[in-house]
Amino acid sequence: MKNKFTIILAVLVLLTSGLYSQYTFQKVLSNPDDQVINCFTEDNDGNFIMVGRKFSEELNITQAYIIRIDSTGELIDEIVPDSTLGWSIFFNIFFFNDSLFILGAKTINDTSITKLWYMKLDKNLVKTDEKHLGIPANSWFSYMNSIIDTDSNIVITGYTSRWDTVSPLNNDAFFYKLSLAGDSLNSKFITSDYNLSLSYDIIEKSDQSGYYSYGFKYSNTPGEGGERFDLSKQFDSINVLSVPQDIEYYMSPEWLNDSIIIMSGKGYSTGIPNYSLRVLTTTIENTPIDDNYFIMEGDIPGHPAMYQGLSINDNNIYVGGTSNLDYSNPFFSTLDSWFH
């Protein structure tokens, strides 16, 4: 089963950029290779640039992937920027200071060694800079998400994976800071015996003194659910708190104002369907203010979006996810599912 992805600009219209399009369209992009888009941005000409990965059956390998369309949905470019036979993927893209910054992962030479991949492009998708940065041995990136902070540095979180003698697969949360030139400024890789230590998203504190990251099991405290990790600008650990109201997994935190954080996630708690799409506001001190959940009729399960799952535009809040996700076979499911 091949993945096709549909772009519905009326919904996507750049909840992330604040720009407004003159057009509404629906576009289906597909080719013989299995495709996944992880993140997108809009340039100042109204073009949309999307990054992710595709699987080439001809080469039998996963390749990083870029697509650019114009403001009417017409395809401009479809690029595989890495021609080597190693594994590669893009996770994030930003349009900042008239340039495109892309973050991903790839193997270099020895296919067992994975690097953090930084790439800078101009508006015509011409590469102007590229760097490959080291991570702990025998680990690879399974997920990353990032922001550009008020110091104009790229701050990344996510989790690496490794084969381990204690558990078949261990996941470890990490934090990485780069300059806009792709130079490594700081990093923190947390090695945990718990094999589901996951970090999904990060925001800068409103006073710009550090960061809050959101994930699952930063600590080894008992119980289930998401956690908030309080970090300094140098990634020193300050505190770990459970996310209130029993929300877990993907968080997509945003500042609603200088003192309120809004986030989404997969909900589970007494009286609430386990696979519902939750939305929650908290104070800076992590005290809950308001929350709600959304699920299709018949309690059809839902799952929040992994990237850009919550955005704010004027007085409107947009929350996205997938309904009827097949948790037992999410990538090659035979079930119908819907964007929610």
Q: Can you put this structure into words, describing what you see?
A:
1% of the residues lie in helices and 56% in strands. The chain is an all-beta fold. The protein has a domain at 254-340. Strands 19, 20, 21, 22 and 23 form a 5-stranded antiparallel beta sheet that branches. A 4-stranded antiparallel beta sheet has the order 3-4-5-6, with no helix packed on it. The chain has a 4-stranded antiparallel beta sheet with strand order 7-8-9-10, with no helix packed on it. The longest helix is centred in the first third of the chain and has 4 residues, at 9-12. The radius of gyration is 19 Å and the shape is globular.
Quick structural gist:
By secondary structure, this protein is mostly beta strands.
Please bin the fraction of helical residues.
under 10%
Radius of gyration: 19 Å
Cα(first) to Cα(last) distance is 22 Å
What structural class is derived from the secondary structure elements? Answer: mainly beta
N-to-C order of helices and strands: EHEEEEEEEEEEEEEEEEEEEEEEEEEEE
Shape: globular
Quote the average pLDDT.
86
Total count of helical runs of at least 4 residues: 1
Low-confidence stretches: 8-21
Q: What is the strand content? A: over 45%
Could you give a short account of the major beta sheet?
5 strands, antiparallel
- Total beta strand runs: 28
